[in-house]
Design a protein that fits this description.
By secondary structure, the chain is α/β, with parallel strands linked by helices. Keywords: Hydrolase, Metal-binding.
């Protein structure tokens, strides 16, 4: 549900939603975390190879959910977009506290101001994170700042749900208390908690549901992915669905990697649902009524 003047903010500039094309709605080209030592995604050449493989299958855009302080490398993203022709959407925001060793420095940040500034320069969404089956103080702090940044810019907010949990808590806070319209919220990792009744309630709210990480074979719920998508489509919620690869470690790149979405998952959806999930829905979910970019 994008407005007539809405655009998608990519690292190279604002783009009409209709030009976004086939989209991986949740992935990482660059990522570094104290929780994943030695598994950093930090190689521009490897990222370029991944993008070219994705583009060879018809991929036109990737939404990178790497938030502030986790090695998102916006300048490298811009160069990769120029070299490959793939549209790249970057994130601001903040992950769970465990990803940031210096908690004292983190608490000194004015998060709303930080998020809004990055949205004005290179970022096209705010990424935040819940806790397991609830929202801790850190999650509430970051989501409150994300809502302020949304109200200042219109930016979409994408949410990491730990093992797919606490999505209703997130909607109650972001949409109920903080006034963010549900269609500006993307709920991530729902494939990891395959409660079909819950999924239908979330979709009925108007939020977007991101099923990501289908290539992560360590998740015991991966085999439910297609059943979840089919059930939501049958219930009339096909226009709320997004898919992403969510590559988070160097070991996962190319194993099977970003192209897996288009090579193996897309053919099993059928042409109509595939068009919605990979093209029409991302164009709506990541569009916003942006003010002009800051120079």
């Amino acid at each position: 549900m994008s407005g007539a003047g809405d655009t998608v903010r990519t690292v190279l500039g604002d783009l009409p939603p209709a030009e976004l094309g086939v989209t991986d709605s949740h992935d990482h080209l660059f990522l570094a975390s104290a929780r994943l030592p030695g598994q950093e995604l930090a190689d521009p050449d490897a990222a370029e190879a991944e993008l070219r493989d994705f583009a060879a299958l018809g991929g036109r855009a990737v939404v990178q959910w790497t938030p502030y302080g986790m090695g998102g490398r916006p300048d490298d993203l811009a160069e990769l977009s120029r070299r490959t022709g793939v549209h790249l959407v970057a994130a601001t925001g903040l992950h769970q506290a465990a990803h940031y060793p210096d908690g004292a420095a983190l608490r000194r940040l004015d998060l709303a101001e930080l998020f809004t500034a990055e949205l004005g320069r290179h970022a096209g969404l705010v990424k935040v994170a819940g806790a397991y089956h609830g929202l801790d103080a850190h999650a509430r702090w970051t989501m409150t700042a994300a809502a302020e940044a949304h109200h200042a810019t219109g930016a979409p907010i994408a949410v990491h749900h730990e093992l797919g949990t606490a999505a209703e808590d997130v909607l109650e806070l972001l949409c109920g208390t903080l006034g963010v319209p549900p269609h500006r919220v993307v709920l991530g990792h729902l494939n990891r908690f395959p409660d079909l009744g819950l999924h239908r309630r979330l979709a009925a709210s108007g939020a977007y549901l991101a099923f990501d990480g289908p290539s992560a074979a360590n998740h015991a719920t991966d085999h439910h992915l297609l059943d979840c998508l089919a059930a939501l489509a049958d219930a009339g919620h096909a226009d709320r669905l997004l898919l992403g690869g969510d590559t988070t470690t160097a070991a996962a790149r190319g194993n099977p990697g970003m192209p897996y979405l288009l090579r193996r998952i897309r053919p099993r959806l059928g042409p109509d649902l595939a068009h919605l999930v990979f093209t029409a829905n991302p164009a709506a979910a990541f569009a916003a009524p942006w003010a002009p970019r800051r120079r």
